[in-house]
Amino acid sequence: MLKLSSHGINHERANVSSNYVALLLAGGDGVRLRELTREIAGTPIPKQYCKLWYGSSLLESTLTRANLFAPRDRISVIVNQDHLHLAREQLSSLPESNILVQPLNRDTGPGMLFSLLNLERRYPGAIVVALPTDHFVDNDRAFMAHVLRGVGIITRMPDKIAVLGISPDRPETGYGYILPADPLVSSEKAYYVEAFEEKPDLINAQEIISRGGLWNTFVMVFKISRMLELVGNLVPHHLERLSILEAFPEKAAEIYRDLESWNLSIEVLSKIPEHLIMLEVANVHWSDWGTRESVERTYKTLNMVPFWTSSNSVSNSLPG
Fold this sequence. Notes:
35% helix, 13 strands, 320 residues, Spore Coat Polysaccharide Biosynthesis Protein SpsA, Chain A, 12 helices, five-stranded mixed β-barrel, alpha/beta, two-stranded antiparallel sheet, disordered N terminus, globular
């Protein structure tokens, strides 16, 4: 049983018998934030590698958060080949074999499948916590406590996919939304799912929020075998294509070169609401740092001044 203690999460939580694994998703290119990352880093690097939070990158912050759930040898990260030099520097504490390198970014679908097919060989039967590395979270322990609720639910209901949701403070058209159905009897703030909609227009976003819809964080908890089964049912051709790499890993570059990009939320999650469980996250400030506006909105919400806009206020703005 996973438990939080006053010193963090009990370190018996990720032993071999429990078979839990953390997967950090770091395969994005962060194109929309390149102007800001150039300003900070001197070159337009992907946002997850940029020191956007007072000396720490979002990847480094996510790794720290993941270590509340699993030891370093059970944390894996999916990255792109052309970002490997950036990733290695920030992931030096991980075993080299835990850095999963895909040849190219082909959106979240191939990135997830590439990762899960690798992890399935190493950790058969494992429960995975998938953590995007381009999100800001202000309270790691509180956030991971919600993740642990998801682990408990998936342990009891292994045919489900648990997704963490955040209560919206505005109708954001750039996010995905989860519309809750009936609550789980056994779990507070956990619900069956009526619908999953990716990036609705403004009117639909307002309608979803009025009906209790939450933002999709894309933080998920699931059994590897179950996610692969659902993907195989919905988009079998995508699974078959990447499964070739199990026997012929040397063909990765060739396969990825001709691989079409596809989005896991659109092609899979939005089509299986009956297989999803939504967990509402509370007592956490969360933001998807996809744009400069979203980054600076977070700083403003926390009554802090972005260090790149005023060097004089850095000393007064550092977290205590």
